[in-house]
Design brief:
Two copies of one chain form a homodimer. Chain A is an alpha/beta fold. Helices cover 39% and strands 20% of the residues of chain A. In chain A, a hairpin with a 5-residue loop joins strand 2 and strand 3. In chain A, 50% of the residues are buried. Chains A, B: This is Nucleoside-diphosphate-sugar epimerase.
């Protein structure tokens, strides 16, 4: 019997994770043997919908809406106990910068409340919690290649709140309160749907729009570097984070996930190989100094030796990233055996 | 007119800092010019005493006792506005490990409340706050030499709480809420008074007791390394942290203070040169595996290039550390022109 809570279940990654959990409804238990999912609770600020087909399946799926920093909402989602929490809920970077109090409350205080609730729910410290952090913890005067032991010096409130959450997870795990694990996520490409206000939105647009026969604008130079991961790899790595034996993490519960270091030029080259010159012709370069400055401040190269040693995986190539999008979001048949 | 608050004013460093502030009662203002101290508020859990002679001096000294995480106590200490806060108050390492909730409340929540109070008190963000952090933020699989860009992976709740406080100071400063500055302190040697329960207490005992004609036990091998600073240097560096122009910190408000990397053998050699064979004969080595393990886990070598560039200073030699103790705590005349 495995009880799972997903916060931020209505988000883009939350939905994909829920789908993956329902498609193969078991996770490793404390002894490493697979345990069937019995109870899946989906939590978000807006009520998540029960995924298609889930109502007839073997897993009890419950959907709940609320504010995690509200003790009543937190109590409801923890009711019945919990074995694994995927904590994806967050106020995004731009919003946390705009509203400092909101970011602190959701990104930090709610994480702390959730850790305390896990501790209360499983006084033996066995509740596993996967916390999603971000490359946004890094900033300032960075080395050319960010390593596992590079100090986070966040240049955004979002990055600060995530870095504080990492530290809480580290301490709750070290003390045996909660079996917490933090993964820092690369930039996720290719996102489905329309462009959003994130500075990184172009990295999905320049692939997604041409594949859909639409025009796209690239606001940064072709030599701009990014550190990316497909949604498919992110979901697989979240499940890996939840199922790794605790001892494997050693004295550090934070792991920078592996990704692909690519330039915009390399992304476009891969698009040409996958979809031809016509697709690439849809991309127009139009410099946006504001976006260029933000993107240039992000670290683009990482050495993620620890994650690799722990079995986390990156996409093999940017071609694979494009194919994952085509298969998962454009209705093409799944050809990739690693999915 | 300069209004200063010192939290933890009753502690060993707090008292020395207050003495130094009263001895030369001015600090640099926003434009770098010296501003006379007008108002000094001393805060601690137990009521601080007005320092000798202060009642007749030009500075109004007020003493207050309470719990900083209590809004009423915080309101009282901030009443009248503030220009500079030295935030030294903390639950020490062993206590924060023993009582997790107390450590979180005092070391983290009260720091957050204090930052919010500074922000409210000076909405232009001009209030300066010096936060004292610690080498305890470092731990886990450390490189041989800890650098300014080495990631903190704390192995104690105290270290986690201090690292979270650093992040808050970083964000409040970046956003222009509070002009915060964090200094990470080396191990402070030589402390006056009797030994305490800290694992590092021997580092003071093996100097202090022989100088006082008493026996001392050294629980670690002679080759054990430590990263130390005299109290005198700590106080000078706290004042340096408070008076540096904000722009000098660049995008990182946390500075690891410089110190001396010494072995126990080097400390004893300096004691022999200062106080002779008779003093050294008072030290007996008696292995304590528990203390040895804790001390061995501490980083002993640091490269503190940033602090040096910002004008922070280390003791020139361990002989200078011993002489500072003799002069400041044993009533010997001040001979050292750098004091």
């Amino acid at each position: 019997m495995m009880r799972i809570v997903v916060t931020g279940a209505n988000g883009f990654i939350g939905r994909k994770l829920v789908r993956a959990l329902l498609d193969q409804p078991s996770l490793s238990g404390a002894d490493g043997a697979p345990v069937p999912l019995s109870d899946l609770r989906l939590f978000d600020v807006v009520p998540p919908e029960v995924p298609a087909g889930a109502a007839d399946g073997p897993v009890t799926v419950r959907c709940m809406a609320g504010d995690l920093s509200d003790p009543a909402a937190l109590g409801a989602v923890m009711n019945g106990g919990v074995d694994v929490v995927f904590h994806l809920a967050a106020v995004v970077s731009a919003q946390a910068e705009e509203d400092f109090g909101l970011g602190m409350r959701v990104n930090f205080d709610a994480t702390r409340a959730l850790l305390d609730a896990c501790r209360q729910s499983a006084p033996d410290g066995a509740a596993r919690l996967v916390f999603t952090s971000s490359v946004a913890v890094f900033g300032g005067d960075l080395p050319e290649v960010v390593r596992d032991d590079t100090a986070p010096v966040p240049q955004s409130s979002y990055g600060v709140q995530k870095a504080m959450g990492e530290l809480l997870v580290q301490d709750y795990a070290r003390r045996g309160f909660v079996d917490g694990r933090t993964v820092r996520l690369p930039t996720i490409v290719v996102r489905p749907g329309p462009p959003n206000k994130a500075a990184s939105t172009f990295a999905s647009s320049i692939i997604r729009e041409p594949l859909n026969g639409e025009d796209a604008v690239c606001p940064v130079p072709a030599e701009t570097g990014l550190f990316v991961s497909s949604p498919r790899r992110i979901v697989a790595n979240l499940i890996q984070a939840a199922t790794l034996p605790a001892a494997r993490f050693g004295r550090d519960r934070t792991v920078m996930l592996p990704g692909l270091s690519v330039t915009v030029a390399e992304m476009i080259k891969a698009l040409r190989a996958e979809a031809g010159d016509g697709a690439v012709a849809r991309i127009r370069f139009q410099d946006d100094p504001r976006v260029r400055a933000i993107v240039a401040s992000w670290p683009a190269r990482f050495e993620t030796a620890r994650a690799t040693a722990l079995g986390f995986q990156a996409d093999a190539s940017f071609a694979e990233v494009i194919r994952a999008f085509v298969e998962d979001e454009m209705g093409a048949p799944h050809k990739d055996p690693v999915s």
